[in-house]
Amino acid sequence: MTTFASGTDTLTRDALTVLQPGFTGTTAPDWLLRRLGEGLASVGLFGRNIASPEQLAALTAQLRAERDDVLVAIDEEGGDVTRLEVRAGSSFPGNHALGAVDDVELTRDVAFELGRRLGACGVNLDWAPSGDVNSNPANPVIGVRSFGADTALVARHTAAYVTGLQSAGVAACTKHFPGHGDTAVDSHHALPRIDAALETLSDRELAPFRAAIAAGTRAVMSAHILVPALDPDHPATLSRPVLTDLLRGELGYRGLIVTDGMEMQAIAATYGIERGSALAIAAGADAICVGGGLADDETVRRLRDALVGAVRSGELAESRLAEAAQRVRELARWTATAGAPAAGGEVRTDIGLVAARRALRTTAASAFTPITEAPYVAAFTPVANIAVGDETPWGVAAELARRLPGTRTGSHTGEDAGRAALEAAGDRRVVAVVRDEHRHPWMAAALDDLLKARPDTIVVEMGVPQAAPRGTLHIATHGAARVCGRAAAEVIAGE
Description:
Elements: H1 10-17, E1 19-20, H2 30-38, E2 42-45, H3 53-66, E3 71-74, H4 95-101, H5 104-120, E4 125-126, H6 151-167, E5 171-177, H7 198-205, H8 207-214, E6 219-222, H9 240-250, E7 256-258, H10 265-268, H11 273-283, E8 288-289, H12 297-313, H13 318-338, H14 351-359, E9 361-364, E10 376-380, H15 397-403, E11 408-412, H16 417-425, E12 430-434, H17 441-453, E13 458-461, E14 473-476, H18 482-492
Helix pairs in contact: 1-12, 1-13, 4-14, 5-6, 6-8, 11-12, 14-18, 15-18, 16-17
């Protein structure tokens, strides 16, 4: 059992217990190990902490040598948002692809295999799945991270994902409560607002969370969004009406409530992370996620002291902080007893590729003849949202190059993207790769230019396929995971 350092009082230990900080590097720094000895109960991992499954397993073992019941969390959704395979691209398609297939057993199997791989590396809490209904096509941060725009579909697949992940012994954290789908602002940059009526929120946004709770989700992550129908004054993360009255009271949820990253501008730029953290715990949150951007001992100290100070000033009830810390410990106990899946079950290492292939939707203008000579792949590249990051490769060029050696590629952005792609392609067949064409006028214009000059162009849409299919062949992959690119390349090359 863990032995806490002497001199750490109960209040300070509880303040450390509710934090889920990050750090830099592929081994645990001394300050982090010291904080684990003082009461820190959780650690959040990001792409910068992961080099290989073997290294990750060694890192989590290092953490557990200091505290055997530590919660090791990761933002691993599969699809576009991957930390486990941040430099290669995910072996699993994301939610939108799974929603396109609409086979809940497949979703459960994908989540189980992802959970099995996480558990084998010592990770026991996944900040996934996204239960957001992508009802706003202009949404800049959810998109393919959602199972879709149909509420019932999102609800059944959210539940299936929770079941699959947790049957592998990894706690699911359904996000972003009360639903981030109907937003046109990225909460990494500013505070989004949803002006939906209560009835709409109940029927649409809350349905997937009801399903997740019924499926036994061990954690729920709050959203940094303002929903005036629920609370006109505070974003959900800081709202007692949202977290305590609605999530705990009306929906009957009893598990851990985790905040989204507190350094996101929706909170940091308006309240600051110290005051924001104290307000979040007071509102009903149990754990403070921080570390995507601020990942050092000073941040942990500042938040610990802010929570202790809020208790001593009367702003935060000591009993509320103690309750939050107890929920963290309860989740840690569940992960210890859940353990690894029983031996003898079927291991489906290919399940991600199977799902990616099933998610493809192809539209041909005429009879399509597979490409047999090395093409030019024109990637029309939008700015990556922060949740996805720009370090994870995407597209079809690498997979086509394996099948058609000599394939060339280039990335094009802006009003001259189409003309630049034509010039770069020369006389090669063109494969144009886009991501959310409907959200980027410059991208649609680039395709206009390209298709006018080269109507035999193949178009691969790796975002949400809202724009009308065009090109001699249009392939909608419903996500930009590595396996989605492979599945598209197989079709293009006639495999």
